[in-house]
Write a structure and sequence with these properties.
CATH class of the largest domain in chain B: Alpha Beta
Distance between the termini of chain B: 47 Å
CATH topology of the largest domain in chain B: Sufe protein. Chain: A
Radius of gyration of chain A: 21 Å
Strand order of the largest sheet of chain A: 2-8-7-6-5-3-4
Distance between the termini of chain A: 30 Å
Strand order of the largest sheet of chain B: 1-2-3
CATH architecture of the largest domain in chain A: 3-Layer(aba) Sandwich
Order of helices and strands of chain B: HEEEHHHHHEEHE
Number of domains of chain A: 2
CATH architecture of the largest domain in chain B: Alpha-Beta Complex
Largest sheet of chain B: 3 strands, antiparallel
Largest sheet of chain A: 7 strands, mixed
Number of strands of chain B: 6
Shape of chain A: globular
Radius of gyration of chain B: 20 Å
Strand content of chain B: 15-25%
Number of helices of chain A: 12
CATH topology of the largest domain in chain A: Aspartate Aminotransferase, domain 2
Number of strands of chain A: 13
Oligomer: heterodimer
Order of helices and strands of chain A: EHHHEHEHEHEHEEEHEEHEEHHEH
Amino acid sequence: MKVYLDNNATTRMAPEVLDAMMPFFNDQYGNPSSFHTFGSNLMEYIEKARQQVADLIGADPSEIFFTSGGTESDNTALFFGGETDPEKPGLITSVVEHPAVLKTARYLEQAGHPLGLVKVNSSGSIDLDSLEDLVSGKTGLVSIMKANNETGVIMQIKEAAEITHRAGALFHTDAVQAVGKIPVDVKAEEIDLLSLSAHKFHGPKGIGALYARKGIKLKPFMHGGHQEKGMRSGTYNIAGIVGLGKAAEMARNFISEEALITSALLEKLESGILKGCPGAVIVGTEAVRLPNTATVLFINVESEAILTLIDFAGISVSSGSACSTGSKDPSYVLTSMGISVADANTAIRFSLSMYTSNEEIDYVLQELPPIIEKLRKISPYA
Amino acid sequence: MDHFMNPRNAGELDNPDGHSEVGSPQCGDAMTLDIKVDDDDRIADIKFMTFGCAGAIAAASALTEIAKGMTLEEAGGIKNSQIVEFLGGMPAEKYHCSVMGHDALSEAISNFITKRDATAAAFKEILDEVPTELRNILGDRTISIVHVHPGRVRISNVGTDRQKVAEILEKELQNRIGETVEVRIA
């Protein structure tokens, strides 16, 4: 049996999404920016997709800019936020951000933008007091992720945005792991800029969007043609955009109906692991988490060894650390929550999707405990 | 791959002759290794435990298979390339995973040698100043040492009251190094 439980890395593209995209790989190959009707007629599909994406996050279509994905959206937002006002060069983000934000922030820090890093508490949520201490009149942008990719912990975005706005700065959220899984409302949560990516919710890879609140005069990150009001040049990836739109439409249905099924399966997986694998610890249980994500510490059992054995059983999951470059880098997300390096190196992440079935969870719960037991037997720590 | 799925020589030995605990606090990887050494200085038995990735487990399994039956000197000279060859290849980025096994083996060997040296030194002390009780039995004989092992000493030329000589020496050794050392008389 093959079981895919690495949906925070990427998801299976929905067949409906592929169907929606196919015409644009075949006879509808025109360039939407062309003058002729063969190309320009395609613009309506792009605008429909823009509406579908806007509807998913409570935005106006004019506030949606298509990009190549989460990393580009994050880079655009951070570069813009850092340069929007010379009087406000400061950037603030959190220690648990995805590298697309964290490394960009580090780059901008080297380029002269003072960087502040918000801490997280032991549950994995951002420490709002720490944000309050860091913001000042010199802060240009605060970027806090909506949900963490490793722990699934959902951050207090509205509160963080309020603190940010009181200091007169812009608020960006990397919502790549949240959009399509939980309700996101840019208006209610006072979000100025938001990154999303299609392939995290059953859309195609290589397409995403940046939401920029009306009134924000974004600066282009990609220079060239005039696409996306000159904000994001490059010939329209029409098939990708249509796929993103379709995935967004389907995600609204998932959030309102199917997310409950996924969270029930996650609960079953978690309680089954705790029962079948003595000593297992679920990370971030004190926080509100995504309905699809669980990171488990199998104390005293090394994660990459688990990963390899579980892969042989046909189960795809992931670990926070990788032992490939000569020294193991434990997950900074887990260590910043106060988890020891040794324990962080026992972490396995399970991430479900709307395609995860009850039988698949049963299979994992049957295969996993003997694997953990086998490795525990040869562990000098256990 | 089989060495990862079914690691050979995993576990611990009772009363090992050499024991080591190595690891990198940096990455949390750790390994213990136990050896039993026979009187020809060959590794008679070897067991390991590890907290490490698949590569580390497979490499440790291969290393212990290679080392078993080797003399300490031979085992100390096992090359990484032998492990890779034994496993039938290994991704280059995983080579470093086998280093921990090497460290563990050489530390277990040095632990064995340290213990053996301690036994030898204690025994020499006794012979340098033979206790009266023993001197009375030996008369003018000089004990000759055949072989020293951390847990046992083989000697000869003690005369007829072998059992009494062994008893006295075992008690003296116990007092000096705090461990039970068996005295065998050839």
